[in-house]
Design brief:
2 copies of one chain form a homodimer. Chain A has 153 residues and is of the alpha+beta class. The first copy, chain A, has helices at residues 26-36, 40-43, 45-49, 60-72; strands spanning 16-23, 82-89, 99-111, 118-128, 134-145. A 5-stranded antiparallel β-sheet of chain A has the order 1-3-4-5-2. In chain A, strand 3 (99-111) and strand 4 (118-128) form a beta hairpin. The first copy, chain A, is elongated. The interface between A and B is medium-sized, with 32 and 32 residues.
């Protein structure tokens, strides 16, 4: 699908988009954590060993941010990927050296009643590691533009 | 509350925690976007002007990450702030120069049946800008440890 710009009208329920993959290093995990989630299990291998995670783990918000990057590059919507809401679960953490990949599937297409130039798209985005384990399950509510109607028609 | 470590048993429904505040610059918005959400409305003022946002706006995931930082520093749970799930809406975007602040309120306390050393806490975290507008409304599901019982009792 790379490069094809998709309008609301081009989408169908069940349609799926596979992202590229991205490897997350221990340094990536610590850098994100220092800025946004400075807790021992995200910052330091030794300190993490004695926590609920039993070892260094990425912040869930880091997994979410990397997932967004993979979605933006694979779900090429006209006007961009514009989120209004999200429901996220993190069944297991992203670990140092994990390679993440996202499959996005269209769950629902809801034309807007009040704004005829757009619709709401419910998109499920499953982020998996190299063992095919789900590290994040996201249900996103997106605003997507309809294909413009020629004026004067 | 700063510095006090709180166990599940120390929490009550309705209890609230106010965070410090953090200012977000245009440079911050663009830096996050380059790495995690490289779309025109998050990267460039001029390109953003013609989009649904009508000007530069932070990625929702950037607002979420900054919110997490403010929560970690203000909700001082024993064992840390450990999220299992989150429901997020972004009623309006974070703009360059906005100062964000988070109020976290306990909605629900659910002792674990299977794991007596912990419980589930539902925490609502409202992120507001300097105009008191909500930029993010988060309902987080956290795992929180119970106060350890002396052994041999």
């Amino acid at each position: 699908m790379g490069g094809t710009v998709l309008y609301f009208d081009d989408l169908s329920v069940g349609q799926a988009f596979d992202s590229a993959s991205r490897k997350i290093s221990a340094a990536d995990i610590k850098q994100f954590a220092r800025e946004y989630d400075p807790q021992p299990f995200h910052l330091d291998e030794e300190a993490a060993a004695d926590t609920i995670f039993g070892g260094l783990a990425a912040s869930g918000w880091h997994t979410a941010a990397v997932t967004m990057r993979l979605i933006v590059d694979s779900v090429t919507l006209a006007g961009g990927v514009i989120g209004a809401a999200a429901e996220v679960t993190w069944p297991r953490p992203t670990r140092p050296g994990d390679t993440l990949q996202v499959t996005s599937t269209i769950l629902e297409l809801i034309p807007s009643r009040s704004k005829p130039d757009r619709g709401i798209v419910k998109l499920r985005c499953e982020t998996r590691n190299q063992h095919d384990d789900v590290v994040q399950d996201l249900k996103a509510t997106l605003v997507v533009y309809r294909r413009p109607v020629p004026t004067g028609a």
